[in-house]
Automatic annotation (TrEMBL):
It comes from the Eukaryota. GO terms for cellular component: membrane. InterPro entries: C2_dom (IPR000008), C2_domain_sf (IPR035892), Perforin-1_pore-forming (IPR052784). Keywords: Signal. Residues 1-123 form the C2 domain. Residues 1-20 form the signal peptide. This is C2 domain-containing protein. GO terms for molecular function: wide pore channel activity. One of its GO terms (biological process) is defense response to virus. PROSITE patterns: C2 (PS50004). Pfam families: C2.
């Protein structure tokens, strides 16, 4: 009688591991601060857990920017921390305007976050 172990190993190796996918999209801000140097040149850095998902383009002189970029993470899991950092790009050093973070949940969600130095960040995410 032949062993069924090789067949069992083949079946186990062919099973796909369930993976989640996180997508962060439709990022926009409103009421970003202005100062004597002008209006904010805003951009956003996106993180999930310890992974860096990317950075948006800089929107120059725009207090109400919208970013076209979408960010995906194939290893995102429920309850991971999604963190978005909003910056003002400056010649010498960039200013952190605020940080938005939350635990992610399955489904599509819209969130609004008030930034420490003024204004708000609005974004959607989907976790499947």
């Amino acid at each position: 009688m032949a062993s069924s172990l090789p067949l069992l190993l083949l079946v186990l190796c062919s099973l796909s591991v369930a993976q989640s996918q996180l997508k962060v999209f439709n990022l926009r801000a409103s009421g970003l601060p202005s100062n004597i140097l002008g209006t904010t040149d805003g951009y956003v850095k996106v993180f999930c857990g310890s992974a860096t998902l990317g950075t948006t383009s800089i929107r120059n002189n725009d207090a109400n920017p919208w970013w076209e970029e979408e960010f995906t993470h194939f290893k995102g899991q429920e309850n991971d921390i999604l963190r978005l950092e909003v910056f003002d790009s400056d010649f010498i050093s960039d200013d952190l305007l605020g940080v938005c973070q939350r635990q992610i949940k399955p489904g599509t969600h819209k969130h609004d976050c008030f930034l420490k130095k003024g204004g708000s960040l609005h974004y959607f995410y989907t976790l499947v």
